Amino acid sequence: MRGAGGAEVIALRGSDAVLALVVCADPRPHAASWEWGSLHLQVGQGLGRYRAEQLVQEAREDCFEARLHVREVDPTDSRIYYLTVENERGSDRHYLRLAVRGSYTNGKSHLFYHGSQTRVNYNSLHDHL
Length: 129
Known about the structure:
4% of the residues lie in helices and 52% in strands. The chain has 129 residues and is mainly beta.
């Protein structure tokens, strides 16, 4: 298994954060899950303040986006979050770091850094397995 990733998502304490990774795989992954600390969450499941979306097809063929939503982040959420994807050719693991900073006072703001900071593309299962 090859690990990849390293982008950082920055969120203000008390806000909502979305961790997003794009993976490219052929064939399509049949399983994907997020892990952090002692917790493990399959895509399509939720647990308390955490919700892992199903993989979503991207515009590029054989590429899929995985998202982990974290509601009302606090400093204890600052850590590395791992995404593991599996298909018939094997598995691969990627990661993002969530950094919770400052404080959040505007009840309407929602942070979702989607771009070069958090949208990480990997051709791992497609090209390397």
